[in-house]
Design a protein that fits this description.
Blueprint lengths: L7 E5 L3 H12 L3 E5 L11 E2 L8 E2 L6 H4 L16 E2 L3 E6 L5 E4 L3 H8 L3 H12 L2 H8 L10 H11 L3 H8 L3 H11 L11 H14 L4 E2 L4 H13 L3 E3 L15 E4 L3 H8 L5 H8 L6 E9 L13 E6 L3 H12 L9 E4 L14 E9 L8 H11 L7 E7 L1 H7 L15 H4 L15 E3 L13 H16 L4
Parallel strand pairs: 1-2, 1-10, 2-9, 6-12, 10-16
Antiparallel strand pairs: 3-4, 5-8, 6-7, 11-14, 11-15, 12-13, 13-14
Helix pairs in contact: 1-10, 1-17, 3-4, 4-9, 5-6, 6-9, 7-8, 7-9, 8-9, 8-13
């Protein structure tokens, strides 16, 4: 039942989760105002001229399997508001020192051919979840307190998702190429590959490549934000940029407030509203490793030794599984690795309008301990040069983001943490507290990536939080 149009809601933060929450509330008939501290909505889903004029870089997220496969976003008419997905011929390339690369092909028949003797094992591991992708997403992106809709599918997924990535890769695959490919997928977890649940990211990232691909939005990630914002405004919602909220008392009176903030920021703006025990729980929340990121304006495409890397918008630069595991182990234990695992995106190969004619952009980052001040530029570029000799010669300009610089651009990226908090098993189930989206204040909710299901651009944290808020409003008699 729709709420009365006289009921009001405030949302703090115009990232994808904040906008998703605002849309759910506006769809239910509430008057919604969104307050964004930065001049441009989007949070980590912004596109900016970070290097030279005419070069349009993604500040944060660049490749979007989870947005394309989001259960909530798929219900919205975002294409009517300018969102267009571009798919590279292959979702992912992973180069090796011998000048070859293994490609993660979208079709399983092609993956069979690319992975050789491990093709059948790859298919056996991932096809059951790729073919049931919508059902899998409804199960793993739901609030953890909700009953799974397909417990058998979830149980089958858990059998391969709960162990470590190292265990799954070595048990399932015989060739170093397939093991390295899975290791790179699992490294998106920001966990050491010998830690439990690190395999879950390899499973989700791998299945998504076959189910929905790893697309880029035409024009950059800002297109996702703009489409969400356009649809929200069509429902009567309002977005106020350059409107930093230092304390909830600054907000207009409302029936519910939802915050796209991490625990640290939530305490700063609303700590006085909470019980002492809830404040303590938030203060003990642990943030995860950070990233060291570089955006490049380039005179031409990345000169990969393996030319097939030019078929993919995403390239995992890290060599063998053992090398990737060593990089992630160092990061997880507070150390710097001389040969870091690097994630690289090359969107202008497939969306050339994002750079001047004939020019290109690249986006690359590696994992580092939270808040690290170590300059990783040489190590990161050495890794790229290892597989693309002459890369530095193609660089026209670069913009370097240390963890502190990332946090300065988006306060939710605490210490460079792009996942909203540590993703280890101890914190994964109850993030940020056992209340998850609720707080100790009955009209105040949390919807950032510090709540389930965690990081990535899928909007489900916002959707889940707003759905809970509406349910409680209705239970209290607000229709």
């Amino acid at each position: 039942m729709l709420a009365s149009s006289s009921q009001k809601a405030c949302v703090i933060g115009a990232g994808p989760n904040g906008l998703a929450a605002a849309i759910v509330l506006a769809q239910a008939g509430l008057q919604v105002d969104v307050f964004e501290a930065e001049p441009q909505a989007g949070g980590a889903a912004r596109t900016l001229e970070l290097t030279l004029p005419g070069f349009h870089h993604d500040f944060g997220s660049a490749i979007h399997p989870m947005a394309a496969g989001s259960p909530f976003f798929s219900t919205l008419p975002l294409q009517r508001y300018g969102l267009e997905w571009i798919h590279s011929p292959a979702p992912l390339a992973h180069p090796f020192d011998d000048g070859t690369a293994v490609l993660l092909e979208r079709k399983f028949n092609d993956a069979d051919a690319a992975l050789g003797q491990d093709g059948p094992a790859w298919r056996s591991l991932l096809e059951p979840f790729a073919v049931r992708w919508p059902a899998l997403m409804r199960n793993i992106l739901r609030p953890l307190a909700a009953m799974p809709r397909d417990p058998w599918l979830l149980a089958r997924f858990a059998m391969n998702a709960l162990p470590s990535a190292d265990f799954v890769a070595r048990r399932r695959f015989r060739t170093p190429r397939a093991q390295a490919l899975f290791a790179g997928l699992a490294a998106h977890s920001f966990l050491a590959l010998d830690q439990p649940i690190s395999a879950s990211f390899g499973m989700v990232m791998g299945a998504s490549a076959h189910a929905v691909g790893w697309p880029i939005p035409r024009g950059g990630s800002q297109a996702i934000t703009d489409a969400l914002g356009g649809y929200l405004q069509s429902l009567g919602g309002r977005i106020h940029t350059s409107s930093r909220v230092g304390n909830l008392r600054q907000l207009p009176q409302s029936d519910v407030t939802i915050c796209d903030l991490t625990p640290r920021q939530l305490l700063a703006v609303a700590g006085e509203r909470f019980t002492a025990s809830y404040r303590k729980q938030l203060s003990q929340y642990r943030y995860g490793p950070g990233v060291f990121k570089v955006d490049y304006a380039m005179s031409g495409p990345v000169p990969w030794k393996a030319a097939e890397c030019l078929r993919a918008a995403t390239v995992h630069v890290g060599g063998s599984m053992d090398e990737i595991a060593a990089s992630e182990y160092a990061m997880a234990h507070g150390r710097i690795c001389a040969r870091p695992f690097v994630l690289l995106a090359q969107p202008t190969l497939f969306d050339p309008a994002r750079a001047p004619q004939g020019k290109h952009i690249a986006w690359a980052y590696c994992h580092v301990p939270n808040g690290s001040e170590f300059n990783m530029l040489d190590a990161l570029e050495d890794q790229i040069e290892r597989f693309a000799p002459g890369f530095r010669d193609c660089v026209l300009a670069r913009r370097v983001f240390s963890p502190a610089a990332l946090e300065n651009m988006d306060e939710n990226l605490v210490g460079g943490d792009i996942s909203g908090g540590a993703m280890d098993a101890r914190q994964f189930l109850f993030r940020p507290t056992w209340r998850q989206y609720r707080t100790s204040a009955s009209d105040l909710y949390l919807c950032s990536s510090s709540t389930p299901p965690g990081g990535s651009v899928h909007g489900m944290c916002g959707y889940n939080a707003a759905t809970l808020a509406l349910r409680r409003l209705r239970a209290n008699g607000i229709r």
